[in-house]
Amino acid sequence: MDRRNVNSKPQLLAWLMCDAVHIDPGSGKHTILGVFSNIMAKHFPVVHPHMVWFLTISDVAAGSHVMKISMGMGLDDPKPLIERTFESQGPLARINLISEIRNLTFAGPGDYSIVIEVDDETLLATSLNVTG
């Protein structure tokens, strides 16, 4: 079956929180630096000065699309954090999206929900644990 003619839901292939992403200018390879999955703080509120969210997606129809990431203390109250457009060459393309997050504030410890959407279609609902 030719997948280019199938309207399928975009697929999230990778999602990482890290300190930085370096793209080699010669090869285009991505080097992911300092991957982490939780945040530890000594006091609250705490401001995390800088992090990078790296996503790889596929099965995205050709054209312009909107990626949104929301975060909150529960799935009922996510606040928009990132909204950006990107282009897809077609469903067989793998698209790397790199978003820098600066000065993200956490009011207190807990599990913060993160929701990633493309064109209002939820690709991932997960959590980030912040401990004291």
SSE blueprint and pairings:
Layout: E1 11-18, E2 20-23, E3 30-33, E4 38-40, E5 46-58, E6 63-72, E7 79-88, E8 95-106, E9 110-118, E10 121-131
Parallel strand pairs: 4-10
Antiparallel strand pairs: 1-5, 2-3, 5-8, 6-7, 6-9, 9-10
Q: How would you sum up this structure, described in words?
A:
This protein is mostly beta strands. 0% of the residues lie in helices and 64% in strands. It has a 5-stranded mixed sheet, with no helix packed on it. Strand 6 and strand 7 (79-88) form a beta hairpin. The radius of gyration is 16 Å and the shape is globular.
Share of β-strand residues: over 45%
Text of the CATH class: Mainly Beta
Arithmetic mean of pLDDT: 92
Reported by name, the CATH topology is Immunoglobulin-like
Total number of helices: 0
The computed structural class is mainly beta
Distance between the termini: 51 Å
How would you write the strand order of the largest sheet?
A: 4-10-9-6-7
